[in-house]
């Protein structure tokens, strides 16, 4: 009787064991499939997020020309935040749409005054004034000595901004009668990051230390 009980116990234990290598292989395949499915979902989500981000949120542009030296140079690649997410203010580096047939390039400039403010420029001293206060402009390459034909002082409408290049004497900007004050609706967005630098003319090299926030 004891022998029969022992045989019965052994049989029950054997029936509780996995069905040999086939069962283990099946479980392994299910684990791999689950892992691949999770990764596929993550990749699809990431791709869709990037597409939406670059469609509605940000975009990339390249700088062309010397007008923003020594802040930006030709060949610099910038990450631009879409205008719908921006609260534009003085000091922002912005992208202006090519809405003027005489100025057929997309312009990268800096806002020096916003709606309701009054801009004045003393072209003898090279000083820019906003609401009667001289601006402290550490970003400019040299003082503002050149005029584009616009008359000053100039009061901006509530929906306008006044933009200038940091390379003041080699920039087509709001001083020029072909552009003048820019309606905010013509601003594509604000420059956030310098992602890849172009060649710096003074050194003839690509200076990767310039990568970072656009100030």
Please supply descriptive tags for the structure shown above.
215 residues, 2 helices
Structure description:
The protein has about 220 residues and is an alpha+beta fold. Helix content is about 25%, strand content about 25%. The chain contains 2 helices and 14 strands. The strands form 3 sheets. Strands 1, 2, 3, 4, 9, 10, 11 and 14 form an 8-stranded antiparallel sheet that branches. Strand 12 and strand 13 form a beta hairpin. The longest helix is centred in the N-terminal third of the chain and has 38 residues. It is elongated, with a radius of gyration of 31 Å.
What are the SSEs and their pairings?
Elements: H1 2-16, H2 20-57, E1 58-62, E2 77-82, E3 93-96, E4 107-113, E5 118-122, E6 127-130, E7 133-134, E8 154-155, E9 160-164, E10 182-183, E11 187-196, E12 199-200, E13 205-206, E14 212-213
Antiparallel strand pairs: 1-2, 2-11, 3-4, 3-11, 4-9, 5-6, 5-8, 6-7, 9-10, 11-14, 12-13
Structural class: alpha+beta
How many H/I helical runs? 2
Low-confidence residue ranges: none
Rg is 31 Å
**Terminal CA distance:** 92 Å
Helix content: 10-25%
The main β sheet shows up as: 8 strands, antiparallel
Average pLDDT value? Answer: 83
The 3D shape can be described as elongated
What string gives the helices and strands in order? HHEEEEEEEEEEEEEE
- Relative strand content: 25-35%
Number of strands: 14
| Assembly annotation | single chain
């Amino acid at each position: 009787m004891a022998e029969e009980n022992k045989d019965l116990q052994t049989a029950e234990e054997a029936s509780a064991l996995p069905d040999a290598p086939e069962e283990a292989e099946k479980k392994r395949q299910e684990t791999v499939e689950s892992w691949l499915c999770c990764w596929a979902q993550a990749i699809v989500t990431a791709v869709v997020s990037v597409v939406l981000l670059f469609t509605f949120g940000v975009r990339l542009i390249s700088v062309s020309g010397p007008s923003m030296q020594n802040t930006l140079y030709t060949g610099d690649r910038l990450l631009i935040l879409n205008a719908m997410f921006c609260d534009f203010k003085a000091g922002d580096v912005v992208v202006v749409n090519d809405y003027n047939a005489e100025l057929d390039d997309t312009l990268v400039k800096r806002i020096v005054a916003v709606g309701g403010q009054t801009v004045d420029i003393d072209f003898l001293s090279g000083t820019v004034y906003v609401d009667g206060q001289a601006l402290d402009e550490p970003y400019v390459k040299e003082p503002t000595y050149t005029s584009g034909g616009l008359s000053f002082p100039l009061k901006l409408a509530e929906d306008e901004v006044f933009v200038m290049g940091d390379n003041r004497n080699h920039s087509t900007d709001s001083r020029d009668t072909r552009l003048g004050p820019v309606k905010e609706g013509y601003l594509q967005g604000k420059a956030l990051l310098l992602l890849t630098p172009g060649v710096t003319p003074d050194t003839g090299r690509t200076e990767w230390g310039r990568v970072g926030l656009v100030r």
